[in-house]
Design goal:
Layout (H helix, E strand, L loop, with lengths): L1 E4 L2 E3 L9 E2 L4 H16 L28 H9 L12 E2 L1 H5 L12 H13 L1 H9 L6 E5 L2 H6 L9 E5 L22 E2 L6 H11 L1 E2 L13 H19 L5 H15 L1 H16 L3
Helix pairs in contact: 4-5, 8-9
């Protein structure tokens, strides 16, 4: 579900754009019942609702927002092999689209120069990799891709004949959130990654579907007080329900009753009104 303002939103593939409370959907009820079944069967650790996210614990299964070859990133961070499997079609939402957008502050004193820099970052291969990985010979070394790798990728876009290997000691001196700097299609891949990584990413992006509410921006000002009340309710019930620690047949009605008391129907009505107006402009 595309939770436009958690826990209110629109179910994926619902072209009618009907706003709902996620906790009143059949899909959520079914999911919570499954989590409860897994918890009682011992698949979920008993302290899941209160435990911190300890990466040293080897998990059997977990859920996350993925992308091509995400298992390589997660496996490297965790120190053991990770296997992934998609559970739904790829959806582009407002949150995912905005998550890595690059913009110029409207109060910038030099917007033209800022734009020139952004253009350079996204078109200059050397600069983009310098920002992304650091200095060659210091933070990383280049290794030539094999002839077999290059031949296998013939005709594909975004293929470079080198791979990078980090200097694990020196890379500590230069670590940046690379995904906020600009596009990644002109960056090199690491030695543990396929040479056609970015070609696969392009195919992944092109095959993704827009969520029905993609492009809609909810103005919560008319219901800001009600929205503020959601957090306490979600904090009280969320982790216990999501981990299967409590019986959803007993606790889900309690959660919804408290959401009603905070004015969730006001939020649903206001969001529906705004979406209906927005639909007319599409």
């Amino acid at each position: 579900m595309d939770k436009i303002q958690d826990p209110v939103g629109i179910e994926y593939e619902d072209d009618t754009l009907t706003v709902k409370n996620v906790f009143e959907t059949e899909k959520m009820k079914s999911t919570l019942q499954t989590m409860r079944k897994y918890y009682l069967a011992g698949y979920i650790n008993r302290d899941a609702a209160t435990a911190s996210d300890d990466k040293s614990v080897k998990r059997f299964v977990t859920k996350g927002d993925g992308q091509p070859y995400a298992e390589l990133i997660w496996g490297k961070d965790l120190g053991y092999e990770v296997v992934t499997s998609p559970i739904m079609d790829t959806q582009v939402t407002n949150v995912s689209a905005r998550g890595a957008m690059t913009a110029i502050n409207k109060n910038s004193e030099h917007p033209e120069k800022a734009m020139a820099l952004l253009n350079l970052i996204n078109t200059d291969e050397y600069l983009r990799n310098l920002l992304n990985y650091g200095i060659e010979g210091v933070h990383y070394e280049k290794e030539n891709a094999t002839d077999e790798e290059v031949e296998a990728c013939k005709g594909k876009d975004y293929i470079y004949d080198v791979k990078l290997k980090y200097n694990e000691e020196k890379r500590k001196d230069y670590s940046v959130p690379y995904w906020v700097q600009g596009g990644l299609f002109n960056t090199y891949v690491m030695v543990n990654e396929p040479l056609d990584k970015w070609a696969v990413f392009k195919e992944f992006n092109d095959a993704s579907k827009e969520a029905p509410s993609f492009g809609f921006d909810f103005n919560l000002d008319p219901v800001s007080t009600q929205v503020a009340g959601f957090r306490n309710v979600l904090d009280e019930f969320g982790k216990s329900l999501y981990t299967g620690s409590v019986d959803p047949d007993e606790y889900l009605p309690q959660l919804n009753k408290k959401l009603e008391a905070t004015g969730i129907q006001d939020v649903i009505d206001e969001m529906q009104r705004q979406i209906d107006e927005w639909k007319k402009t599409k």
